[in-house]
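Posting this for the archive.
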Amino acid sequence: MIVLGLTGSIGMGKSTTAALFEAAGVPVHSADAAVHRLYDGPLAPAIEAAFPGTVRDGRVDRERLGQRVLGDAPAIAALEAIVHPAVRREEEAFLAKARAEGAPLAVLDIPLLFETGGEGRCDKVLVVTAPAPVQRARVLARPGMSEAKFAAILARQVPDAEKRRRADFVLDTSEGLEAARRTVAELIARLR
């Protein structure tokens, strides 16, 4: 089974691209979705212990947690020490299941793939990209996003040019959904 890492900076179209793989029948594990599930209960006690006041009704309040950790490197490291091992366990279970089911290809959708050394767990890496003005417009259109928050997120990410340099495949998502769908189909055929 080929393990394809899917990554890209914020606002580059990673989630849409992951959905294109899923629609084509490729199993996809989303690190973001795993974090959401874990925040909805399993990790809430540990996060509340580390960051009091960030859990409501047994679920992590992502907004409150973000306010506590964004721009605070030690706090982010403490949060990652709680979250990353749990996400990794889910990823391993996903890959074992995909292998057992005979999938020829599986996708690991990991926003911080290069930042966390995740490329070592992948056979190939696909980076999604878009021109900076497109990225900026997409991100600032998100609810609750601000220039400061966008800048803080970008500061934690490997620059787009470096990601593209390190990738096996690059997909420019600014060319439209149909172009992305064709590229994904071609990539699936090539990797299978």
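The first strand starts at residue 2 and ends at 7. Residues 73-100 form the longest helix (28 residues).
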